[in-house]
Amino acid sequence: MAVKIRLQRHGKKNFAFFHIVVADSRAPRDGRYIEQIGSYNPNTNPATIVLDSEKALAWLNVGAQPTLTAKRLLSYEGVLLKKHLQGGVAKGALTQEQADQKFEAWKAEKVAKINAKKDGLSKDAAAKAKAAAEAEMKVNQERAEALAKKKAEAEEAARAAAEAAAAEKAAQEAAAAEAENTEA
User: Fold this and answer.
1) What is the tens place of the pLDDT at every residue in 27-45?
2) Hey, what domains does the chain have and what are their CATH numbers?
3) In this structure, what are the phi and psi dihedrals at residue 182, rounded to the nearest 5 degrees?
């Protein structure tokens, strides 16, 4: 029986997440499996991987073959490195303490990279939000200036109309007074 470590698709259309399972290679993709060893959610940034490293390593040691994507996930989580280091310990190339030190150093570097990426993403999001707020303030200021200009023009037009009406009334009064003077 050929045993594979592979992904089982779940979720909905255009928003999938995956279970990492150990299954017979002849079983359907989303069908029967032997054991579930983790999950993978590519929808988050960075992708969320939850993996039982000990179970995955145990299955690799008894001959389970990971698919290409599962192999990348196992490598990302350090399971393949741990298997490689255990092979070195078995051959006598290094001691268990040296292997553990190498793995811990690799894991610390990996965690630092992930945290740096998360920090960069949060800084980018903050910068984008600040730029959007500044752009909105600029648009609001332009709108306020346009409204003030329009209001000033309306007031000027009303003042001109009032002056014109006052001038017309004065002209009518002057014409009426002149008409009275001519009659008298």
Assistant:
1) 988 889 999 999 999 998 8
2) 3-94 (3.30.1320.10)
3) -70, -30
Q: Give the whole-angstrom CA distance, residue 83 versus residue 93.
A: 14
What is the side-by-side order of every strand in the sheet holding 48-51?
48-51, 35-41, 15-24, 3-12, 65-66
Smallest Cα–Cα separation from 53: which of 106, 95, 15, 129? 106
For 89-136, the DSSP string reads HHHTSS-HHHHHHHHHHHHHHHHHHHHHHHHHHHHHHHHHHHHHHHHH
- pLDDT tens for 4-33 read 999 999 999 999 999 999 999 999 888 899
61-108 tens-digit pLDDT:
999 999 999 999 999 999 999 999 998 988 888 888 999 999 999 999
Say what the pLDDT of residue 169 is: 85
59 pLDDT above the threshold of 90: yes
Measured CA to CA, the distance from residue 95 to residue 86 in angstroms comes to 9
Q: How many C-beta atoms surround the C-beta of residue 110 within 10 A?
A: 14
Distance of alpha carbon 161 from alpha carbon 54, whole angstroms: 88
Chain centroid offset of residue 101 CA? 35
